[in-house]
C-alpha cells in the first residue's frame, strides 16, 4: 500500500469531477432563474389571488418552452419529482390502466433500475417481460424489438442512452419500424397517432446532448430529469403522446392536469426548463469539445497504462460524447476510486446511481464481461466545465495509482 504516493498535504489536491453521469453541478443561470421562485414568488399556483396566478403562469410558460423543445403540445408534459418517478408513471400508469388478463412488456437488459425494478414488480403480479439482450457494445438489435412483439405487448421501454457505458440506442429507427408494424395491423393509422404497443424511452442521460424531437423519434412516452443536465435534483418530466392511456400513480389535489397531484415544485420546474433550454442550445458545440477531450484522454490512457480496455461502443456516433468506461484488469475498481479520491479526482464504479454497489454491474455483465472484469471497471464522465488541464492532471497520477493498486492486489 505504501507504493502509492499520496499528494502532499501542503499542496491541496486539485478537484477534478468526472462523474457527470451521476450528477451535474447546477448551472448558475439555472440557479438565477429559480431564485425568485424560492423567494418573492412563493405563492401556491392553485391560489386565486394574483401572486398565485403569477406562479401558475410561470409553470405554463415552462411547459410551453419544454413542449417547443420536444416538438409537442404543452398538455403532453407532466412535471415529476425526477427521472425515477417519470419512469414509474410511464410503466405503472399504463399497466394499471390496461384491463387485459395477459400483459407483455419489452425492455432491455441494461436499463436503469428505475425502469427495471418497476417492471420486476409487475412480473411478480404475472406480467410477462422480454429483456432484450445487448451485444458487446451494449446495443440492442432493432429487428429483435419488432420480433419480440406479441398481441398482448402493451409497452416497449428502451433507454435512449445508457448511464454506465454511454451506448446510444437507435431510437428513431426502432420508432420507424414500430410505426410500420402498427400500420400493417391498422392500415389507416396516421403517423403521430398512438397505438399499442406504446414506445417509452428513458432519455435522462441523453437530454443534455441528443435530439429530443418526439416526432422524429416516433416515441409515445419520454422521461427526462434535471439532475443530469445541470438542473436541480428532484426534478423531471414525462412526455405522454395524446391518446396514450396513462393514469396517475399519485392521487390528491389534481395538479398537473390530474396526472401528478401535489403542490408543484415551482422553482424546480423553472430550473429544469431553464437547464433543458441551455443544454439543448449548446449541445452541438459542447459535444464536439467533449469528444476531442475524451478521445485524447482515452488514447493517452492506452499509451500510458498496460492491460486496459474500453467497455461499451467504440468512440464514435453510438457513444455519448462524455463517456469513458474502462476496465483496468487486475484491480478492484472500488479501491482505485478511493485512491483517486485522495487526489481530488471523482469517478464512479459501475452504476453510481444504485446504492448497493457490491454486485457487479448488470450492464457490464450483459455486455459479456466477467464478474471480475466488471468489478475492475471505472466510469469517467466529462462535463461542460471539464478542461484539458483537468484531464492532464488525471493523466499525471492515474498510471502510477493504477500500478500501485495492481501491485497491492497481487500481494493480497
Ligand atoms: C439518473 C437516471 C434516472 C433517475 O433519475 P432521478 O432523477 O435520479 O430519479 C433514470 N434513468 C437514467 C438513465 C438515469 O441516468
Quick take:
This protein has helices at 28-38, 50-70, 83-95, 113-124, 142-147, 171-185, 214-217, 266-304, 333-342, 362-366, 371-375, 388-410; strands at residues 16-17, 77-80, 104-108, 128-132, 153-159, 198-202, 221-225, 236-240, 308-310, 323-328, 345-346, 348-349, 377-381. With 412 residues, the chain is α/β, with parallel strands linked by helices. Pyridoxal-5'-phosphate (PLP) binds at residues 82-84, 112, 114, 159, 163, 202, 204-205, 225, 227-228, 236, 353.
Explain what you see.
With 412 residues, this protein is of the alpha/beta class. Helix content is 40%, strand content 14%. The chain is built from twelve helices and 13 strands. It has helices at residues 28-38, 50-70, 83-95, 113-124, 142-147, 171-185, 214-217, 266-304, 333-342, 362-366, 371-375, 388-410; strands at residues 16-17, 77-80, 104-108, 128-132, 153-159, 198-202, 221-225, 236-240, 308-310, 323-328, 345-346, 348-349, 377-381. The strands form three sheets. Strands 2-8-7-6-5-3-4 form a seven-stranded mixed β-sheet, with helices on both faces. The chain is globular, with a radius of gyration of 22 Å. The N and C termini lie close together (10 Å). The site of pyridoxal-5'-phosphate has 15 residues, from helix 3. Pyridoxal-5'-phosphate binds next to helix 3.
The tally of helices reads 12
- Element pattern in H and E: EHHEHEHEHEHEHEEHEEHEEHHEH
Radius of gyration: 22 Å
Heterogens: pyridoxal-5'-phosphate
Name the average pLDDT: 93
Question: Regions with pLDDT < 50 over 5+ consecutive residues?
Answer: none
State the separation between the terminal residues, measured CA to CA.
10 Å
Structural class: alpha/beta
Amino acid at each position: 500500500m505504501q507504493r502509492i504516493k499520496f499528494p502532499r498535504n501542503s499542496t491541496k489536491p486539485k478537484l477534478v469531477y468526472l462523474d457527470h453521469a451521476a450528477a451535474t453541478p447546477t448551472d448558475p443561470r439555472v440557479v438565477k432563474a429559480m431564485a425568485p421562485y424560492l423567494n418573492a414568488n412563493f405563492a401556491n399556483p392553485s391560489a386565486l389571488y394574483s401572486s398565485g396566478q403569477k406562479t401558475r403562469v410561470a409553470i405554463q410558460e415552462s411547459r410551453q418552452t419544454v413542449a417547443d423543445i420536444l416538438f409537442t403540445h404543452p398538455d403532453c408534459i407532466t412535471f415529476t419529482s425526477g427521472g425515477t418517478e417519470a419512469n414509474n408513471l410511464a410503466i405503472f400508469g399504463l399497466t394499471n390502466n390496461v384491463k387485459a388478463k395477459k400483459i407483455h412488456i419489452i425492455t432491455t437488459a441494461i436499463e436503469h433500475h428505475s425502469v427495471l425494478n418497476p417492471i420486476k414488480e409487475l412480473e411478480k403480479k404475472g406480467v410477462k417481460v422480454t429483456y432484450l439482450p445487448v451485444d458487446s457494445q451494449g446495443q440492442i438489435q432493432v429487428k429483435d424489438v419488432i420480433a419480440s412483439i406479441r398481441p398482448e405487448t402493451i409497452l416497449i421501454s428502451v433507454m435512449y442512452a445508457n448511464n454506465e457505458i454511454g451506448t446510444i440506442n437507435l431510437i428513431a429507427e426502432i420508432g420507424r419500424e414500430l410505426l410500420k408494424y402498427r400500420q400493417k395491423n391498422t392500415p389507416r393509422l396516421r403517423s403521430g397517432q398512438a397505438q399499442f404497443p406504446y414506445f417509452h424511452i428513458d432519455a435522462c442521460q441523453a437530454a443534455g446532448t441528443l435530439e429530443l424531437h418526439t416526432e422524429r423519434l416516433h416515441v409515445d412516452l419520454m422521461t427526462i430529469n434535471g439532475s443530469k443536465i445541470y438542473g436541480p435534483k428532484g426534478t423531471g418530466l414525462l412526455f405522454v403522446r395524446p391518446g396514450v392511456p396513462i393514469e396517475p400513480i399519485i392521487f390528491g389535489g389534481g395538479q398537473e392536469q390530474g396526472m401528478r397531484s401535489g403542490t408543484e415544485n415551482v422553482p424546480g420546474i423553472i430550473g429544469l426548463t431553464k437547464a433543458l433550454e441551455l443544454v439543448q442550445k449548446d449541445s452541438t458545440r459542447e459535444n464536439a469539445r467533449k469528444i476531442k477531450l475524451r478521445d485524447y484522454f482515452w488514447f493517452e490512457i492506452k499509451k500510458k497504462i498496460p492491460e486496459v480496455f474500453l467497455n461499451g461502443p467504440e468512440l464514435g456516433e453510438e457513444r455519448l460524447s462524455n463517456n469513458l468506461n474502462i476496465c483496468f484488469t487486475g484491480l478492484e475498481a472500488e479501491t482505485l476510486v478511493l485512491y483517486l479520491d485522495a487526489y481530488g479526482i471523482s469517478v464512479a464504479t459501475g452504476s453510481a446511481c444504485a446504492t448497493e454497489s457490491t454486485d457487479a454491474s448488470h450492464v457490464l455483465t450483459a455486455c459479456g464481461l466477467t464478474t471480475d472484469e466488471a468489478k475492475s471497471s471505472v466510469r469517467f464522465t466529462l462535463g461542460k466545465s471539464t478542461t484539458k488541464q483537468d484531464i492532464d492532471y488525471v493523466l499525471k497520477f492515474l498510471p502510477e495509482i493504477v500500478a500501485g493498486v495492481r501491485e497491492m492486489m497481487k500481494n493480497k
